[in-house]
């Protein structure tokens, strides 16, 4: 509400009231002065309470905080390279090829070992045979025929001289020699006619061919027997 200047108090009141209350303007000025002093005192007390009792804490800068936390800064490393479809295919193909080569090498060594053992057995048995005696003599033709008959009795096999299935040609000849039917010399002469009929370089090589059959073995032994008989 605006102040009304020049509004005088009654004459009866001015004689007894303080000079501050003689006019409304003087009263307002006194109130403003008191309010300003009180506000100044309160502000001074508040600022005095807010002042720090000790020195302010100095915080480290950002670089120091990052170093103390162990955070690695710098450029981001590149993403790992993803191999292409061709690279993955070539890798799988190389693994398969390596496994196939290992399988082939292992089985080749095993087959070579079996063949070597078989050859050593043949040499051992042939070297262990006794010297021939006159009562064991037999014609090569009869020896070849006896070999066929022995295979029919025992059965025929390949790659070994003797197995649960039977005997090969050399195994049958060995059994005949041990039983007294023929000698090593008889077997050697009989095999000359057998190789001439087969056209092969060795008896075991011809016997162990994968396409060979027992019927072919008997037929060839009989043909070689006829050839040996005609050569006498």
Provide a descriptive summary of the structure in words:
The protein is an all-alpha fold and 232 residues long. The protein has a domain at 121-230. It has helices at 11-14, 24-50, 62-69, 85-128, 140-154, 169-179, 184-198, 203-207, 214-230. Helix 5 (140-154) packs across helix 6 (169-179) and helix 5 crosses helix 7 (184-198). It starts with 10 loop residues before the first helix and ends with a helix. Pfam families: DUF6197.
Describe this structure in a few short sentences.
With 232 residues, the protein is mainly alpha-helical.
Topology, element by element:
Blueprint: H1 11-14, H2 24-50, H3 62-69, H4 85-128, H5 140-154, H6 169-179, H7 184-198, H8 203-207, H9 214-230
Pfam families: DUF6197
InterPro entries: DUF6197
